[in-house]
Automatic annotation (TrEMBL):
PANTHER family assigned to the protein according to its UniProt record, in alphabetical order: ARYLSULFATASE, ARYLSULFATASE FAMILY MEMBER
Name by which UniProt lists this protein: Arylsulfatase A family protein
Keywords carried by this UniProt record: Signal
Protein family per UniProt: Belongs to the sulfatase family.
Originating species: Bernardetia litoralis (strain ATCC 23117 / DSM 6794 / NBRC 15988 / NCIMB 1366 / Fx l1 / Sio-4)
Signal peptide range: 1-20
Gene Ontology molecular function, alphabetical: arylsulfatase activity
Superkingdom, natural source: Bacteria
UniProt domain Sulfatase N-terminal: residue ranges: 34-335
Keyword Signal: yes
Length: 430
């Protein structure tokens, strides 16, 4: 009788042990699904970012520098020249002429399938999703709730800017109130709270307004620019601009510090600038003619850094990357099998091995007056508009577009390149 009881106990113990092992195995498999942290800096060009030769005055940004230095920096990442089109291209994987969002303030149709919904449709709702921060895809409509697109949670500022980042319109659950907490800190607090509430893999789109105008003095303890007086039109804007970037860096560090080591190790971080530096603070070799709001390199060739889970390569990658490519890339990170969709092509494979991604990249703008588009390959670039004007540059020897090749006779190579670029441009737009 004693032997039978002992035998029964042993069998039950082995069954329980087996179940425990199976439970642990499931946990390990789940942890292989990475968290995705996508950070957008607003109006932060290469001349205001460490690690690039453009610009002399640089901010003190140890957190962003670490994101860059521990992963990949893409040197040929093309965005749109203003905020809304970059966001629309990322969230839909489509060029602006496909969505109608080609300038700041254009409205994204609620018929579009956005990235967050696409991911969860593809992965059986594997991810918790949130957009926190600047939306800028609803025009002047502050009552629209981005959650209507299938995003789990939205909180932030619906419009493109505010009169004061200490007194601004805050929207959550489709309701807008006045918020007086400093905007960069508020977005970070929201991000920390939301991440801490999650019990499954998460995808957080964190869109800071920094360092977008208005120029202002952020809380002194968050930056190294000293005790800045209130900004006036006669002030030098550069210290205020740098202070806003440094404050964002300070807040990103706060967010990352809240993650456990295990959670941090299972998180991939993607950091971008949404368009070039504003002309008031542009630095050499850029000018007010070639920065934000233009299709010159200072307006659309912006920082893109990727580090963390699944990224084994480091250094600089010179592949041509389109803003639209973020859609398929993030979807593939999340578990989708789709490597290409709409105008988006995943560059996820570049995180582990070097290869060629695209032959051409494309950008465009339509501010209501000028309809302009640009296309480039690794060497040559053309900018054209609806009135028939066209410019062409050799970016290998003239990266800041000082010499329009079309003002002189083209060589055979240049003429062939021009024809090929125009053919590809027509294929894209038609």
């Amino acid at each position: 009788m004693k032997f039978s009881s002992l035998l029964l106990f042993s069998v039950l113990f082995l069954i329980l042990l087996s179940c425990k092992k199976e439970e642990n195995t499931t946990t390990i498999i789940a942890s292989d699904t990475p968290n995705i942290l996508f950070i957008i800096a607003d109006d932060m060009g290469k001349d205001a970012t460490n690690g690039f030769s453009e610009g002399i005055i640089k901010p003190n940004t140890p957190t962003i520098d670490n994101i860059k230095n521990t992963g990949l920096s893409f040197s040929n990442f093309w965005v749109a020249p203003t905020c809304s089109p970059t966001r629309a291209a990322t969230i839909t994987g489509k060029y602006g002429y496909q969505t109608g969002v080609k300038w700041a303030g254009d409205v994204l149709s609620n018929s579009e399938t956005v990235l967050q919904k696409y991911i969860n449709d593809q992965t059986n709702n594997q991810y918790a999703t949130a957009v926190i921060g600047k939306w800028h895809l609803a025009g002047s409509n502050t009552t629209f709730n981005p959650e209507n697109f299938g995003i789990d949670y939205y909180a932030g500022m619906m419009s493109g800017t505010a009169q004061s980042y200490y007194n601004w319109d805050y929207t959550e659950n489709g309701t807008t109130t006045t918020e007086t907490e400093y905007i960069t800190e508020k977005f970070t607090n929201l991000a920390i709270d939301w991440v801490n509430q999650q019990d499954k893999p998460w995808f957080l789109w964190l869109a800071y307004t920094a360092p977008h105008t208005p120029f202002h003095a952020p809380p002194t303890e968050m930056h190294s620019q000293g005790n800045l007086p209130p900004y006036t039109n006669s002030s030098n804007p550069i210290p205020y601009y740098m202070a806003a970037i440094e404050t964002m860096d300070y807040q990103i560090d706060r967010l990352l510090s809240e993650l456990s080591e295990e959670e941090k190790a299972n998180t991939i971080i993607i950091f971008i600038g949404d368009n070039g530096t504003p002309n008031q603070v542009a630095q050499t070799p850029y000018s007010s003619r070639t920065t934000k709001g233009t299709l010159y390199e200072g307006g659309i060739n912006c920082p893109l850094f990727v580090t963390g889970k699944g990224v084994s390569r480091t250094g600089t990658d010179t592949n041509l990357i389109n803003t639209t490519d973020l859609f398929a890339t993030i979807a593939q990170i999340a578990g989708s099998n789709t490597s290409e969709i709409n105008d988006s092509k995943s560059f996820n494979s570049l995180f582990t091995s070097a290869s060629t991604h695209r032959e051409y990249i494309y950008s465009e703008m339509n501010d209501g007056t000028d309809d302009i588009w640009a296309i480039r390959n690794q060497k040559y670039k053309i900018i054209a508009n609806n009135s028939g004007s066209i410019e062409m540059y050799n970016l290998e020897i003239d990266p800041y577009e000082n010499t329009n090749l079309l003002l002189t006779s083209l060589s055979d190579e240049e003429n062939t390149a021009k024809n090929n670029l125009e053919i590809k441009l027509n294929q894209i737009r038609n």
